[in-house]
Automatic annotation (TrEMBL):
Entries under PANTHER family matching the protein: ABC TRANSPORTER ATP-BINDING PROTEIN, ABC TRANSPORTER RELATED
Primary gene name: natA_4
Pfam family, one: ABC_tran
Key words of the record: ATP-binding, Nucleotide-binding, Transport
An example molecular function term from Gene Ontology annotations: ATP binding
Highest taxon above the source species: Bacteria
Originating species: Meiothermus hypogaeus
Residue ranges constituting the ABC transporter domain according to the UniProt record: 19-272
Name used for this protein in its record: ABC transporter ATP-binding protein NatA
Length: 349
């Protein structure tokens, strides 16, 4: 059995996996219907189906206590994978094991160990105070009264939600509501957290608060977290390792740094000029991304970097020059815009 060996992972974590997917696939049957009345009639008598291959032969393992980012463009298969891992849907093929259970069996012992939070769905009852919804969760998960009170106190302090739990959920701000959703989802103290866009739509301060809470929750309870987010700041702040999925297939499993190295076909060159140079002239050395006064930022393809930089130093009035990796957001955008980049082995090596 192969284990992930990402950078900085303590050796003890390499011995077991909390989440294991092996050739995991999910195909959804969808009906095909030609447009118009004739199409509807034909569809009524002779239904035609096609398979949407939402997840195709995905394999990975996640060790206890790891926080892993799950990246991919819209429709890539992230939510479907999270639903497979939390047992909401049955796999079409392959194996899946989470916390020692086969998720689709939905055993009580399994449900006590996991939670699934979807940023676009809510479980709290709109017209009731969050505290009342927490009571429902406590009953479902059979949490003893003393533990319940202790956990609500502890989590509401970590989430800075004190004083907010006794008013109807509809009166909370979006950020407070999301934090209350997290509190409800974590009352049974799950070991494995599947988080689908937990910061969706939140303002920057609330995003930071949720991020810090998740980091602290992971540290305090050694919880395993698999997290999707369209905000790269969530991923860079929380995850050393990322999985990237594209059109249902896993295209990358490794460190964030390795993702840059593998997928960024260019590097960023920041220059400080001694005197003004026209943009057209700068453009001869690379793609000018920004130019303001004497400062400019260019993208130069990796294979042309050494030659390009030496030429700039020879021909331009350069006062200072620095070569950096491009921002991870730009890299991801580039990967998804250019699918040729994602053919090849899955590795960060
Ligand atoms: N119940 C369903 N029936 C049919 N097709 C589905 C169903 N659920 C998802 N799909 C399709 O499966 C593919 C993967 O969808 P999924 O929701 O897993 O993607 P995603 O990566 O989570 O996307 P997003 O970032 O937009 O949420 C898409 O093509 C989607 O249209």
């Amino acid at each position: 059995m192969a284990y992930h060996s990402g950078p900085g992972l303590p050796a003890i974590l390499l011995q077991v996996s909390q989440i294991r997917a092996q050739n995991l696939s999910k195909f959804y049957p969808v009906t095909l219907k030609a447009p118009g009345f004739v199409g509807t009639l034909r569809h009524f008598f002779q239904r035609k189906y096609k398979q949407v291959e939402a997840v195709k032969g995905v394999s990975f393992q996640i060790a206890p206590g790891e926080v892993v980012g799950f990246l991919g463009p819209n429709g890539a298969g992230k939510t479907t994978t999270l639903k497979l891992l939390s047992g909401l849907i049955y796999p079409s093929a392959g194996q899946v094991e989470v916390a020692g259970h086969q998720p689709f069996k939905r055993e009580h012992a399994f449900l006590r160990k996991i939670t699934l939070v979807m940023g676009n769905k809510q479980q709290l009852i709109w017209d009731l105070p969050a505290a009342d919804s927490f009571r429902v969760n406590a009953a479902v998960y059979e949490i003893p009264e003393a533990d319940f009170k202790k956990r609500v106190g502890e989590l509401s302090e970590m989430l800075a939600l004190e004083g907010k739990l006794n008013q109807p959920v509809r009166k909370l701000s979006l950020g407070e509501r999301m934090k209350a959703e997290l509190l409800a989802a974590l009352l049974h103290r799950p070991q494995v957290l599947f988080l689908d866009e937990p910061t969706l739509g939140l303002d920057v301060n609330a995003q930071v608060a949720v991020r810090e809470f998740l980091r602290e929750y992971n540290r305090r309870y050694q919880a395993t977290i698999l997290l999707t987010s369209h905000y790269m700041a969530d991923i860079t702040a929380l995850c050393e390792r990322v999985l990237m999925i594209h059109q249902g297939s896993l295209v990358y499993d490794g460190g964030l740094e390795g993702l840059l190295g593998r997928f960024a076909p260019y590097r960023e060159v920041h220059i400080q000029l001694g005197q003004l140079v026209e943009k057209d002239r700068l453009g001869q050395y690379g793609e000018v991304r920004e130019q303001e006064g004497l400062e400019a930022r260019l993208l130069i393809r990796r294979e042309q970097l050494v030659g390009g930089v030496s030429q700039m130093l020879r021909e331009l009035p350069i006062a200072d020059l620095e070569v950096r990796d491009p921002a991870i957001e730009e890299v991801i955008g580039q990967v998804f815009a250019d699918t040729r980049l994602i053919a090849g082995p899955i590795t960060d090596g």
